[in-house]
Amino acid sequence: MPGRRSWALEGIGSYGAGLAAFLDQAGEHVVEVCRPKRPSVRGGRKTDMIDAIRAAKEALASEHLIQPRLRGEREALRVLLATRHGAVLASTAAINQLRSLIVSASDDLRDELRKLKRPAQIARSAQLRDRPTQDIEHRMTARALRSTTQRIQALQAEAKELEDEMLALVREVALELLDLLGVGPITATQVLVSWSHPGRFRSEAAFASFAGVSPIPASSGLTNRHRLNRSGDQQLNRALHTISLIPMRLDPITKTYVARRVSEGKISRDAQRCLKRAICRQLFKILERSGRGTGTNSKDLVQAA
Known about the structure:
- It is a single chain.
- This protein is mainly alpha-helical.
- Helix content is 61%, strand content 5%.
- The chain has 12 helices and 4 strands, in the order E-H-E-H-H-H-H-H-H-H-E-E-H-H-H-H.
């Protein structure tokens, strides 16, 4: 804003939340910037001072600045989502460790477990016992398998419990999101965390740009081409990508829409980008209504494109 001091902060939704709240209470004007672009060349400079200058330049170059994210329900969803993500990563690491243990186990243990599918492997490994009649290698390997399996089961139960918490909160905040084909508690939570509150984005086009699904002109001469947008909130972009996969696979209307886009000369990736843009438009309308209305189905998503 001309004539007014502004603070451009990166990471307001996480590490910068405390500073943003402090500045807001002090009556300062705070805007949010996405992660500033850093040099792609190897050995590019990076310090806190350089990052601060890049954030300031990003804010000065932007025609429309983004309001900071709110706390409250949005922050509650964010911490649940981040904690579940950590549990899923730890569970994946434990599953990989279980596979390594099976590969290097003695012949009898390996033959018993390697042909089973993952859920059966986990269930069987949890039942292993180290009997005194067996040699030390067999007993310790069985104990390691059992311990790793117990960790996997605990982490998976934790992730499921956190997902149930998110589902209950999403139903209170924006039940209509769950009516869309392909939208589940995880993707709905990410959409709400990124959107934050009504009025944060000036339009659905700004929200699409923030999500990285707006087309970028890349034409020259007599061509009229666009390329994918690599900027914006990549977690939100990934959520939109996940949402688009379900109707592309299950909804006949969406299949017809994608086929029509491909027949127009677009590659499948560009056709999916158009679908993600339509999904983003409908999500924004639902969110700005703050739960009012009757919801949207996959047919509305395709017609909106």
